[in-house]
Specification:
heterodimer; A: alpha+beta; Alpha-Beta Plaits; two-stranded antiparallel sheet; 19% helix; elongated; B: two-stranded antiparallel ribbon; 2% strand; globular
Chain lengths: 176, 342
Amino acid sequence: MQALTNRSKVVVDKKMTLMERIYVPAIVSGMMITFSHLFKKKATIQYPEQQREFSFVYRGKHILKRDEQGRENCTACGLCAVSCPAEAITIIAGERKKGEEHLYREEKYASLYEINMLRCIFCGLCEEACPKDAVYLTEELVPALYNRKDFIYGKDKLVQPLGTSAHPKTYKPYKK
Amino acid sequence: MEIPVEFLIEKTIIIIVVFTVSLVTAMYSTYAERKVSALLQDRIGPNRAGPFGLMQPLADGIKFIFKEEIIPSSSNKGLFILGPSIAMLTACMTGAVIPWGDYLEINGEQVLLQVTDINIGVLYIFAVVSIGVYGVMIGGWASNNKFSLMGAIRASSQMISYEIAMGLAIIALIMTTGTLSIREIVEQQTTDFWNIIYQPLGFFIFMVCSFAECNRTPFDLPECEAELVGGYHTEYSSMKLGLYLFAEYINMFISSAVMSAFYFGGYDIPYIETLGLSPNLVTILGSAFFFSKILAFIFLFMWVRWTLPRFRYDQLMNLGWKIMIPLAIINIILTGACILIF
């Protein structure tokens, strides 16, 4: 069989020579290797202060988008909830009243939109299912909390804040 | 017999200083252990508690004290408490005979930087270290747990078998120095070469055996996590566990001190007398030099720990009985021959 790399070594069950049986040279060379690591660049990332750069396709906390005029995109069609394999999304639809045209883009909107972040597996299927460009997964992380019920994110935590202008097609986190 | 008050005060101060220094060094050895292991593994290590994480040992100590104390109901309570106490006591006792420095002149009085200079210092250290085995054995047995018992059996058999080779290595040293007082051994090295020149093989055997005596990797079988959970301290919690772990670090400090006193000249700085400094300054510099040697040995202990894997139990025994002891005997014969010839 052709070897894939030139790094493979054939295992030989030969008797060890005297130098090998003394062990000390091998131990010293091993200690030299570990000593050289004292001065190497450290791999640690100091987490809360420093953050690792995310991949462009990273899927983190969800966001409910607004359009250019600041109206919510979501029409509470429920496709995201249906597509969700973990059944993490709950939606209750509401009807847009007169004078709320600046808040919701279409006549129907989600009066309740909850995602259970403990159920969510961050697969991104809700994002794929959404016909209205409303739900996206950002690069933000869901923080650790003390209570289970705090992990149920409502519209207060999910909707894009007013006045922010993130491009609806991008995964990038919206700038505050 | 009447004991002068000045003598008592002087010795009390020295005892307190030695005790504090060995405890603080052991405390910061835990910090150093974590830092060295981190650096050798391309990590940073503790850096949150205080600047550079320097308060970490304090935080660990507070955590140990406030943890829940569990004494298993099936254990032998008296012995269960006695185990860590013996381990800690013996670890602290060995520091008494080690010469931490030369004379210091205060108000025309000569103060010896050593708790007591007994003429059988080497034997004293061996005797006290041997009692240390009881701490481990009693703790392991009193836990009434098979893992603890296995750990204790391993620890005691390992310590006993390596003590033989260690003792034989010391015999060769004593043949060349002709004294059992540690201060005299160090004094001889201030005028002559360091003993490492005369006893390289003896030093090597002594070093390997002290690794085994301190239960450090590659000989840390008594607390081998992979097969024995925690070894002899499986059932221990809170500060009792802390005392066991702490005793290990004090032992490491003391054996580093013994190694540098026996083989590396103790507080001797070569050719310091040619500089013509005042005797007090020379003494202080000597003590600092002794301390830096100790720290270097502690670093060696950690360096080896984070480089080598653990021995298998049969390999450990093979090494102890079939290699170390014959080597030590050969060393004695060679030393004897050299003494006869020269």
